[in-house]
Specification:
It comes from Cladosporium halotolerans. With 171 residues, the chain is of the alpha+beta class. It has four helices and nine strands, in the order H-E-E-E-E-E-E-H-E-H-E-H-E. The chain has a seven-stranded mixed sheet with strand order 3-4-5-6-7-9-8. The chain is globular.
């Protein structure tokens, strides 16, 4: 065995054979543990950064609706400056549009009002560029959602987004 073979053996996973000296070479590899989800940040995040009257993001969340189509909702819980209001923001992106949202939306409304989350509002953020955004906004209007401005959350007047349409409902 030369120096080159020694270097290859040192850098490769441990090798063993099945069936003695004439057996089949088997490489054992160490499997990594599955990734652990990151906890919510322990420090609070102020949005917008550096704003005097910005809101504070308290928790991040991801909710799966296993009853219908396996829809995933992502969002966060925020407090307005002075903790006057607390809202659950949930993003309805392209993957959510067109799904059966009734069970998931019902669960989100219940979640927003539970102890620990304790929000005053559920704010749904619709992706303006997603197909069906207009129709979903109209349907959510029939349920009781209203178009919302984010003035209380940003500390500025007439806060609109080019990417998201915000619809709010009191919980």
């Amino acid at each position: 065995m030369g120096a080159r073979d020694d270097a290859e053996d040192a850098s490769s996973p441990s090798k063993k054979t099945l069936g003695g000296s004439a057996g089949i070479p088997v490489q054992r590899r160490h499997q990594a543990d599955p990734p652990t989800p990151s906890p919510s940040p322990s420090a609070t995040v102020v949005y917008p950064a550096g704003a005097q009257a910005g809101s504070v993001i308290r928790e991040y969340l991801e909710v799966y609706d296993y009853h219908a189509t396996g829809t995933r909702f992502r969002g966060f819980v925020a407090e307005s400056s002075g903790a006057a209001e607390r809202a659950l923001f949930v993003f309805f992106d392209k993957e959510v549009m067109g799904q059966d949202l009734k069970p998931g939306l019902t669960s989100l409304l219940e979640l927003a009002g539970t102890d620990g989350i304790d929000c005053d509002q559920l704010i749904v953020c619709l992706d303006r560029k997603a197909e069906g955004c207009k129709d979903l906004a109209k349907d959510l209007g029939w349920v009781g959602f209203e178009i919302a401005m984010l003035d209380a959350w940003t500390g500025r007047e007439c806060s609109l987004s080019d990417r998201w349409l915000f619809l709010a409902m009191d919980v």
